Amino acid sequence: MSEQSATVQKRERTGAYDPSVIEPRWQAWWAARGTYRAPNPGEPGFDPARPKFYVLDMFPYPSGAGLHVGHPEGYTATDIVARYKRARGFNVLHPMGWDAFGLPAEQYAIQTGVHPAITTRKAIDTFRRQLQRFGFCYDWSREFATIDPDYYRWTQWIFLKLYNSWFDTGDRQQATGNRQQAAGSGQQAAGSGQQATGSGQQEEAQKHTGTEAHRDEGRGAQTWDGAEGKGRARAIEALVAELESGEREPRINPEAAEHSTADKAQVFGSWSTLDRATKRRIIDSYRLAYLAEQTVNWCPKLGTALANEEVTADGLSERGHFPVFRKPLKQWMLRITAYADRLLDGLNVVDWPESTRIQQTEWIGRSEGAEIEFPLADVGVVQQDGPELRGEAGLRGGAGLRPAAGQPTLRVGSKDSTTEGDGSSMSLHPPSVVADVEVGREPVVRAATFVGRDPYPPGEPSPHDLIAQARRLPHLELEGATYFVTWKTADGLPLSRHERTMALKALGHWDGQRCRVYLANVMSNHVHWIVRPFEGVRLGDLVGSVKKFSAREIHAGRGAQGRLWQEERFDHIIRDERWFTAFTYYVLRNPVVAGVVKKPSEYDHTWVHEEVCAAEGLSLAAGSSENCPTGGRSETCPTTQPCPTTQPCLTTQPCPTLETCPTLENRPTLRVFTTRPDTIFGATYMVVAPEHPLVARVLENPAPETDVQKLRAYVEAARNRGDVERMAGAEKTKTGVFTGVYCINPAVAAESTVAAGSTDPVFAAHPARIPVWTADYVLMGYGTGAIMAVPGQDQRDWDFAEAFDLPIVRTVQPPEGFDGEAYLGDGPAMNSGFLNGLDIDDAKRRIIDWLEERGVGRRRVQYKLRDWLFSRQRYWGEPFPIVFDEAGNHYPVEECHLPVTLPEMADYHPEESDEPRPLLAKASGWARTTAGAAGVRAATDEADVLGLPPDARVSRETNTMPGWAGSCWYYLRYCDPKNPACFSGPEAHQYWMGRGGVDLYIGGSEHAVLHLLYARFWHKVLFDLGCVGTIEPFRKLFHQGLITSYAYQRPDKSLVAVDAVEEVEEGRFIERETGKPVAQVVAKMSKSLKNVVNPDDVIAEYGADTFRMYEMFMGPLEASKPWNPRDVGGLFKLCNRIWRLFIDPDTGEVGETVTTDEPTREALRILHKTIQHVGEDVEHLKFNTAIARLFDFVNALTPMERRPVAVLEPFLRVLAPFAPHLAEELRHRLCAAGLIPDAPAESPSITGLAWPEHDEALAKDDEVEIAVQILGKVKAKIVVSADADEATLERVALADAKVQEQLAGKTVRKVITVRGRLVNIVAG
RNA sequence: GCCGGAGUGGCGGAACUGGCAGACGCGCGGGAUUCAAAAUCCCGUUCUGGCAACAGAGUGUGGGUUCGAUUCCCACCUCCGGCACCA
């Protein structure tokens, strides 16, 4: 201390440059005067005439270790820009604050019991003190930390915005459309949906904020501030209103990742009839914040969940080596996937580094392709009632088809007690396949593919189309539904009139008792039935009962036995009156069209409920056959006609009837996602992930070829491999096991015919029959967890096919001479039937159309992006403003009751527990409360599903938000950090966030993906809700490079710490202990290598100005570069030299060389060059070259005997952004010496002064040296006036003696002249 | 493996849109100042050959386009960052 102050005194006395004195002085002065305070619109001192510039640093986490030299790199850059822009007349917003929640403080609390807030505040104070020592021009009046209740109150508020919003895809019209409709009309529907969305947007924006919309209107920049389309967030009330009005069908959000496809397929009655729980389920499925069960790595010993990186390869915690288990836990998720497309689109309007945009694009991972259904050839394994099939498995339900055990072929069989015994005697039209519905046992077929789309076509299709459509749909059994059911007689045996009457009686038997029968109709060989089972009655039971009863009666009459009715039946839910009418109309009109009767009323085996007869608009006699493509004959397809189905028929014989047509329809299918549907003909096998439900199902119910043991072993191994071998690195060899099951390749099937006379109904030798394998190179989490393997065009598939000797078929013609394996390039399709000759794009279009027409596939976009897991089982984070009632329903805390603050804890030790439990749950006094105390809205009445009675017992959400939460919106709070009424006041927000948001955002590339993606997501939600006015938050983004350090490396590449090495001579280093030579290398700074540079030390030695200039001079801002202590001195020297341009070191006064002379031409030239180049370089963030220009200036001025103040003073204003203390000091000294007038009273600081204007003419050199090349080699130099034209250049160059010499004996062929550059003579 | 970025003196780096490669700094060499040192100022500093004038080579490697290439194209090598069997 005493030694240091002695040095200081000496420096002061001698007038040497001493940053340790001048820097703290000016820092205090700036702080006292509020020099860097940026007033908001409306505040005193705000100048609305100036444009704004918002320059932002990435939110630092104040670690206990304090600042390292990497931090100030970006901060210096933004500081320079902020100062420069201020000098250029901008109102600059340049704030700083703290992303302060974080694990280290909590860990420390666990160890010591010190409240994390205390630890964190201390770290913040250290950081602030360190940052202030750099002289950064932050507006500290705007400082806040994410741990401030005043701040996280609004983080919670935004969470509630997410919670209370849903993503309207704008497909309401499509909701009543059909997924199988032609692509053209589908697009039309989507288009009009978007339009509707767009027009409603502004309106709703106003509605939501309650205040003025934050939207930045009239700025005109469509790309920035316009509506985006592709759907948007809206208030949940709008959803409820749509549901209540009937505008939207009540159903589970089809886009909800947390719901199974079966959930999403459920069709509910009208909104008003639904119970509370169902209404809630539907609403919650739409929220942008939702609860879902997620697997966590739970470590009971640590009482905490661990990130994947914190778990070792052997399933132990990295910390402590305790066992870790995978446990499901209900956690909050944010529906970021809804914004996948918009997050992609936004990347096109921002000025960001290309690499970051690419990283984000890849993270979102959009791939366009097709989803294709591959019918399973062996369907015995797929009982349609299994809960497994409800997941994302992609197994489509059809009628359950079942092979006889041990037989490779399908035969008619039954478990029906009435037909026990010989199944073969029941064969129908061999070799066809008959579906087997196990009536009375488990007839419900879950709809695994009923995803996201309403099954009913738009407009008014013909009844025939409806029926055909219904046939393709999965069967559903739902409480309260009305069904259309139809089945045939076995063998198509005709019924007599008497038998038909009996059947009709049976169909009507339970009317009024167990069901309501709306329509019953018995034809000579089949029945139609429209029925609504009463509550608690199952459709399957009813059908079974009717069949059994009628069969017994009829058989008795005939004296026959066995099966009367076909086991297959079609049932489908009738959802609304339109459909009801259509089905009824179809049933009644069909006999007329078929010519059985003249009009429906003549049909005597029909019974229609009065209600139906009375129904409006049902005109039974109306209609004609013209809109029925098969002339109404599809029900009784005669053998003389081709099969009327749209599916390719695989048998060689004409189908007797539709129901027995062994086409691919109505089989269970394996659904795949592919980006190369054009290669479908080359799909020679299938692969499903080991976790795929099909595999479990096969294990339960093996196919004849299944090697159960091997399969089971593989699945087990794959499960373990998930965690263990992921770390072990890329595993090259492909592994897998054949499941024993086959699929039918629908494209190959359609193009091939089975040889006539084949008796094999499941195409045992057919090329369309392809094996299904399981292998862990297929991931359950992407697509459908199943692929069609196309070895010819996919290297992974190729490798797999090679390994397991599976067929390879090329379907894209590789170029001549191609000797690779899989061919991924473009080329004409081959071996692909109707696709042959088409290039990839055309083939894709063609095949997708083809698939869609047949209902076996569709266009599909897939994303890698997953929803954002938003819950952490930690104490030190933002509490969720959510409570749960005793039934487990969640309720938001009302806005006026925010913030929900963290409770005090007795200690921070997690409880050791097998059950995942967040730490906060220990604060039971806090967690258990009442709805009123927690601030939940009081329920208005019974029907109010979103409120609670105030005295209802509730428990608080005990998870907390993740670290990302607070940093997602901090840039908005800076605009208006103290506003108690709003997250950011509209006026301030509009001003600072106008014109594309943050104008310059600098931070490390480690945040290139997650932080920037999450923040953009929140911003877009807030945009949709009218809370912000730009579609993107950060207009220009820049990543500073890493600051590395030197370390030393032994010949074996191991690193040696800096303090263990000695430099024996220039550039030669040895390891002190061994004396062996080591090489100097660049490495990341790390404690272990002892190469960490502490900024405090550097500042103590050289001062902040030197530090700032060194960091900027090291190299390009974006590059990684090593900290070289030796180089720092060079910048200190620069500061000293600048000092001495002004100050006589002997006297400490302004030197006598500083004059009021008229500047010389030379002095003016260097000044204006400096102004110009530094300005340009700062604009381009090229600070290293800007500082080189400062060197140039000093180099030019140093030798001058007389230095005009008219040149020195503007130079200080150029210097100020880089070395603000030095510039401020010197300017004040010039004032004090009377060499320049005092600065204006309102801004006595150099900070308030304008950037000097440069004069282009003065900056120009009078004469320039021009290189003269002969054949591109410089041979001579000539000096000409700077504006010499081409002719002059050529003349002077050719006249040059040296040139003459070189050209002797040669002919000049051509002379190329570039003004101000060179002359190149082509001679020979 | 894929995607992105980068390879230039002893070192950090510069070179606008294809136009004198090595700005600027560090280090090093020489000189001035000094009793001496530090500091400061001046000169030099890509390599090879030559006392020198000068000559030749040279921007990771190999090829190409061009009057002219660090810059554009093709192939390859090395390093850094990101993703990782994404169908």
Describe the model:
The strands form ten sheets. Strands 28, 29, 30, 31, 32 and 33 form a six-stranded mixed beta sheet that branches. Strands 13-10-12-11-14 form a five-stranded antiparallel beta sheet. The chain has 1324 residues and is α+β, with helices and mostly antiparallel strands. Helices cover 33% and strands 15% of the residues. The protein is built from 40 helices and 39 strands. The longest helix is centred in the first third of the chain and has 27 residues, at 183-209. Helix 32 crosses helix 33 and helix 34 (1161-1179) runs parallel beside helix 36 (1205-1215). The chain binds one RNA strand of 87 nucleotides through helix 14, strand 15, strand 19, helix 23 and helix 33.
Largest sheet: 6 strands, mixed
Average per-residue pLDDT, rounded, comes to 77
Helix content: 25-40%
Question: Judging from the principal axes of the Cα atoms, what is the shape?
Answer: elongated
What's the count of strands?
Answer: 39
Percentage of residues in strands: 15-25%
Question: What is the radius of gyration?
Answer: 40 Å
Unreliable runs: 1-12, 173-227, 379-460, 614-666, 726-730, 754-764
Distance between the termini: 75 Å
Summing up helix and strand content along with how strands pair, one would put the structural category as alpha+beta
Count of separate DSSP helical elements:
40
